[in-house]
Structures are given as C-alpha cells and as structure tokens.
Predict the 3D structure of the following.
Amino acid sequence: MARVAVIGAGWAGLSAAVALCDAGLKPTVFEMSPHPGGRARSLAVDAAQPLRLDNGQHILIGAYTESLALMRRLGVDLDQALWRSPLTLIDANQHGLRLTKGPPLLAFSRAVLAASHWPWAARLSLLRHSLAWLAQGFQCNASLTVARLCRGLHPRVREDLLNPLCVAALNTPAREASAQVFLRVLKDALFSGPGSADLLLPQCPLAELLPEPAWAHLRSRGVSLHLGQRAQFHQEATPGQGSPWRVGNEPFDAVLLACPAAEAARQVQACATPCALPEALEGWAEQTRGLRYEPIITVYLKADAPAGVHADAAALPFPMVALREGPDAPAQFAFDLGPLRHAPGVLALVVSGAAEWVSAGLDVCAEACLNQAQRAFPALTNIHVLRSLAEKRATFACTPGLRRPPARIDTGLWAAGDYVAGPYPATLEGAVRAGQFAARGLLADLHIASGSDVPFKAS
C-alpha cells in the first residue's frame, strides 16, 4: 500500500484525507495545532470562557454541494447542524432582499421587485444589470474590479447590497475585488438551481460540523493522526530508489501539503537540495509567497433581552443582519447566536477586509463594534464585549487577474487549500473541493483509481 503524508488538518486537509481513505489508503495526517479545523475551528473552552465559540463566524449556502455531501458522508445530521432559510439579506429595520422558494431567476426577480425600501429606479437597475450578467454567462474582463463592474448600478443598490455582499464573499473591498470571481459567486449562489441560494448557518460549533467528525472517521479507519506536531517534508537524497519523500524520518510515496499558504511555501522552499531547488518547485514557492492577505475580525458581544421579552427570545429580527459600515462602524454583518442554538443574547459582529482595524488595534475595533451594535439595536440593554478575535491571514486578497498557485507542485507532491488555483474565493467550499481535487491528482500520480469526479479547475 502506498504511503501518503497529509500535512495540515484544516478543511482541505481533512477532505483530502477522507478521499484518500475512500480510495483504500491509510494516509498519515500531521497537524501543527492541538486541534483540527484550521482557520474554521472552534476555540478551546476554559474557565474564563465556558461558551464554545468559533474563531470566526462562518456561513454556508445551498450551492456548497461538496461540503454538504462530505458532512453527510461523515454522519452529520444537516437538519440539526445547519439552520436553513432562503437567502435573506436584511438590515436592523428589516429592509433588504428576501428570496422565496422557486426557480432561481423568478425568485430573485420577485425579491428585487418586493424591495420597497428601494426606489423603482434602484430595483430596475439591479434587475437590468443582473439579466445582463446572466446573458453574458457571468463572464467579464479579468481586469475589472467589482466597483467598476457595478459602476452603472443605482447607488442605493451598491451601498445596501453589492458592496457588503462583495466584502462578505471575497473578504476584499469592492474597489479592489475581482469582478470575475464575484460573478462566479453570484452565479452559483443565486442562479445555479433551486436551493442554491439558501442560507445555511451552523447550529453547532464549527468543530462539530466537519473537523471532529472527519477526525473520528479517519481514526476509525486506522489512519495515523498527529496533533501538535510541526511536520517538515523533504526529498530523498537519491530519488527513484524507494519512497521519494520523507516527513521527519518516515518515508512516503507522496505528500499532500494542506497547511496555510505561507507555511506551504516555506516547506517547499526548505526542500532545496545543495544544487538548488528544481525550477518548478522554486516557481511554485515564489508564486505562493506573493499572495497578499486580508484579515477578518470577529467581535462577540453579550446583551440582555429587551424589557418584557423572554431571555431566550431572538435578539435580532433575523439570525444574520446586515450593518451599515462606516468610519466608526467596522462590522458589515451581525449574527444572533441565540436562534442558532448557542447562548441567547450572544451576537457575533464580523469585520471583513479588516486591515485598517487590525492596525488600529483589536480593543479599538471591539469598542467601535460595541458602539455600532448599541446604535443599530437600541432595544438591547447591557451590551458588553465577550471576546474579540482577529484572523490576520483569513483569506487571500481576491483581486483582478490574481494568479494563484496550482495544486500540483511536482509528481507526488500536491497542495490543497482555499488559496490554490480554482473558481472560488477563499471559502469552506473552496477548501473542501481543493482537498478532494488534490487527493485525486495524487492518486493519479500513484496510479490508484479515486472513484470521484469533483469539478475543480483553474479559473
């Protein structure tokens, strides 16, 4: 049996390891942190914070077909684990877009026409541009930013819908974000079939959604699992004789790098021989090191219920509420974790594209989010900061014409992660598909049938 090392146990690494198991292998998985999950994980519970919070507020949509299929494969009850609703993007005053069930184009058109808080000119502007994008197959010039793509749209639509949707989906401001990737997101989310636009919010900690079920599944299949271990791979001194790769002192026939991009680039660079790195490896490492990143800040708040309202009642009009971003208002969305089976009264305010607020300081951002929540939700009382978290390299900056590194680095050496070349921005679905794609490529290198055909190709 071929020996394969998977370095990294985030969503990409775990999906790759499960795919390798399904092909009959028993990969060895190395994870540097003490818990699996990568950048989409749950935090450890301690005496100071008994509530099991996540390192950031993640969402899924109905179009995330491979992520949902993998969760089912791992025995996750999706009806219990995910709160599902037709896509609803509303603010604290319940103004916004509410899709209904039905054919995607019809549901979207009805929602736009029903958005009475917008003038008719704004609604017709959105419909006209959306139909034009649809007619063009959701393709555009690769050099366009989202801001340029939407320049002809009514200002209310840009401010209320497209700009916050862009920064939420791509974690990159509209003035810098890739219009082509944004159109791909709109196509899959709004126009790819019934239920594709459904909003899916976790009703359990992220760890229970995929990382822990995958970890348990791999353990049950006899996979060798290592937590809290920083693994470094290198080539054998005499390739072609036995296993060509080593991780530590162990020989392997193939290596799948599923660690963060910066760590993967470091590992590939460190694989240099005394005669210098092979050109392909050197180019891959250089391209990966060139990625620019955008941070995300999540500020958890705790609030008391309004007077006369039961303590377990929802704090917000909908579990996900859009906020108006501004110089003293960092967050674009607020999540009410009470209806999502977490602690009542706990809110998660998400600051995407948060570079300026990271520079200002986490405490400054938390205070600004607290003030923003008090203004947006005046009925709530005794709001205070529960915890603030910053993921400084949350996603790559999804800019026009960005060249992302390929999944294949060399024969028997593949990379998996939401940053590798592919059609999606840095999302959970992108990570899962990248892991499955890399596993199939690695199996092909080893001449082993994968039995899977997950679509994933360079954008």
User: Anything to note?
Assistant: Residues 4-44+208-291+402-445 form a domain with the FAD/NAD(P)-binding domain fold (CATH 3.50.50.60). The longest helix spans residues 428-445. The two ends are 34 Å apart (CA to CA). The chain is about 35% helix and 20% strand.
